[in-house]
């Protein structure tokens, strides 16, 4: 799994950014990353309050322990700007990564 493709997606993710004079939409990993940072910070806070250590690196945890918190996306593609992209398939794929997060399940799996 390279760094040029997503590990996770959020199909609800659309951010409106205001840049002084223009309002623009942002999709994708750059929009998802801040939300994920908040969710992981919340889970780490819960863990610390229970006397546990913080999560550390997430890649292995997401692939093993937290699979139940991810909903696999198996249809669609990322054919962006008319170029060839990748199809969504069962399991990890370069279009949707490991899938779509359910925060309550993630907290339970990693908490």
Can you offer a commentary on this structure?
With about 110 residues, the chain is an alpha+beta fold. It has one domain (about 15-110). It has three helices and four strands; from the N terminus they run ββααββα. Strands 1-2 form a two-stranded antiparallel ribbon. It has a two-stranded antiparallel ribbon with strand order 3-4. Strand 1 (about 15-20) and strand 2 (about 20-25) form a beta hairpin. It is flat and about 50 Å long. The protein starts with 14 loop residues before the first strand and ends with a helix.
Please give the order of strands in the largest beta sheet.
1-2
Determine the number of helices (DSSP H or I, runs of at least 4 residues): 3
Number of strands: 4
**Helix proportion:** 25-40%
Low-confidence stretches: none
Question: What series of H and E elements makes up the topology?
Answer: EEHHEEH
Q: What would the average pLDDT be, to the nearest integer?
A: 77
| Main beta sheet strand tally, sense and closure | 2 strands, antiparallel
Overall, the morphology is flat
How many angstroms does the end-to-end distance come to? 25 Å
- The tally of structural domains comes to 1
* Strand portion: 5-15%
Q: What is the multimeric organization of the chains shown? A: single chain
Specify the structural class: alpha+beta
- Radius of gyration, rounded? 16 Å
InterPro entries: Peptidase_S8/S53_dom_sf, Tripeptidyl-peptidase_I
GO molecular function: serine-type endopeptidase activity; tripeptidyl-peptidase activity
